[in-house]
Write a structure and sequence with these properties.
alpha+beta; Fructose-1,6-Bisphosphatase, Chain A, domain 1; D-Maltodextrin-Binding Protein, domain 2; 2 domains; 8 helices; about 30% strand; globular
């Protein structure tokens, strides 16, 4: 068994442990510190990330880049969102998750997303496919008929007008749009064939990397997120069933994304 295999098994157990901690803390959530008008930092975020960092350090001595405590890119590094979909988490809705990705020399090798309230565990290993609760995943292939369904994320780092323009062009092209409030879960839904694509004009690496590997391993297409220092600065994200690639790339705000 390779070092990556060891780490994958560990990450699966760790995501489950982190999810249990997050659920246990929700009843006594306490003070919520506003980070921006659409994002919150809770005691649970901090506690879950601290748990993940401690476990990875004890097991492997691996460095971590996390949403709450940051970190520095390295040859091998974990990229962690302790709770993606924090607003959903606070309001008691199910679309939130723990997202863990392992990046080695600029390549995502492992992606694990655990959605505790949905009892869903998404796992991907580069070159070995993607699963949901042990079941192999494939993107939709647009096999369900009708117009495509694409989830859209919104980022305050890009002008609102660009996001509205993107949605307008999607509607004109018979592409239905949805928003679930978690980029990681949005990408996991693409891998599972629940939706046909996910787009966001800017997203951070900890929200995206695990889900992007899931989509690729499920047969879908994604842009080269890590190009242009995406690990440190974030990037635009486009992920979809392969049959939808050209249509999304033709939309004005996404033109040229590859």
């Amino acid at each position: 068994m390779t070092d990556f295999d060891d780490r994958l098994r560990f990450a699966i157990d760790l995501a489950t442990e982190a999810g249990a901690l997050a659920r246990s803390m929700r009843q006594g959530l306490g003070t919520v510190e506003t980070k921006s008008s659409i994002d919150f930092c809770t005691a649970a975020d901090l506690a879950v990330e601290a748990l993940v960092r401690r476990r990875l350090d004890e097991a492997f001595g691996d460095p971590v880049i996390g949403e709450e405590a940051g970190g520095t890119p390295a040859d091998l590094v974990w990229v962690v969102d302790p709770i993606d979909g924090t607003t959903n988490y606070i309001h008691g809705t199910a679309n939130w998750c723990i997202s863990l990705a392992l990046v080695h020399r600029g390549v995502v090798e492992i992606g694990v997303i655990h959605a505790p309230d949905l009892e869903q565990l998404f796992v991907a290993r580069r070159g070995q496919g993607a699963t949901l609760n042990g079941r192999p995943l494939r993107t939709s292939g647009l096999r369900h008929g009708g117009g495509a369904v694409v989830e859209v994320g919104w980022s305050a780092r890009r002008p609102l007008a660009l996001s509205l323009d993107l949605i307008s062009q999607m509607i004109a092209d018979d592409i239905e749009f949805r928003r679930c409030g978690s980029g990681a879960m949005g990408l996991a839904n693409v891998a599972a064939g629940i939706s046909d694509g996910y787009v966001e004009l800017h997203i951070n690496a900890w929200d995206a990397l695990a889900g992007l590997l899931l989509v690729r391993e499920a047969g879908g297409w994604t842009n080269d997120f890590l190009a242009g220092d995406g690990l440190r600065l974030g990037n635009v994200v486009v992920a979809c069933t392969a049959e939808l690639t050209g249509r999304l790339q033709a939309l004005g705000p996404l033109r040229g994304v590859a």
